Amino acid sequence: MTSERFAEVDHWIARHLLPPDPVLDEVLKANAAAGLAAIDVSRVIGSLLALLCGLVRAHRVLEIGTLGGYSAIHMARALPADGRLVTIEANPRTAEVARANFARADLVKRIDLRVGKALDVLPGLVDEGHAFDLAFIDADKENNAAYADWAATLVRPGGLVVIDNVVREGRITDDLSTDPQILGTRSLYAAMRMDARFEATAFQIVGTKGWDGLMLARRR
Q: What is the pLDDT of residues 135-161, one digit of tens each?
């Protein structure tokens, strides 16, 4: 099997299972036009995030790592009318692209975009008394363990934490790696294994984004 075949199947699944969505297509075009890295979740994974929001009956969602807002739009659409998604983006220019995309999707009132480094923003959410039903972590991998620790504080018992890019083309098995993203991902696994606040698992995914995976953790 090749990465081209993985992508072909991913596109086939989306085409045969998910309805056409011109707004999402426009979001990806806007991200590309702005020069953002093409690292958004796939359409299939976006639909999974929306489904998970529905399964936990989410009213409040936290996202760490906005990029152009593609995943945030999937999740915000799955919320009830009075629902709220808080998303954190470190890069002000990228945040402006996301703001435009949220307006394009008519979700400005449902999405609260915070600009700044997540580790600086997250304590303020605790101070504001937020309790989230689901958190999606898709930011710098070096800080994944720290983000998961904050999620344990911010997500309600019974809520769900979803962490992207936890397989890294299989390189997580390399004990000798000095890549900060690999080291950060391995630290996440070590932290989650020892954290009694979570019940967690992870699984591999192949598709348009190559070979990677997701970690799912239920807040005890």
A: 999 999 999 999 999 999 999 999 999
- How many domains, the chain? 1
Q: Would you mind telling me the total number of residues written for the chain in this entry? A: 220
Q: What is the pLDDT of residues 10-46, one digit of tens each?
A: 999 999 999 999 999 999 999 999 999 999 999 999 9
CATH of the domain at 50: 3.40.50.150
Instruction: Evaluate whether 204 touches 167 at the Cβ level (below 8 Å).
Output: yes
- Cα–Cα dist 47/27, whole Å: 15
Cα distance between residue 118 and residue 40, in whole Å: 18
| pTM (two decimals) | 0.97
Residue 127, phi-psi category: left (phi > 0), alpha (psi -120 to 50), beta (remainder)? alpha
What is the domain extent for residue 46?
A: 3-219
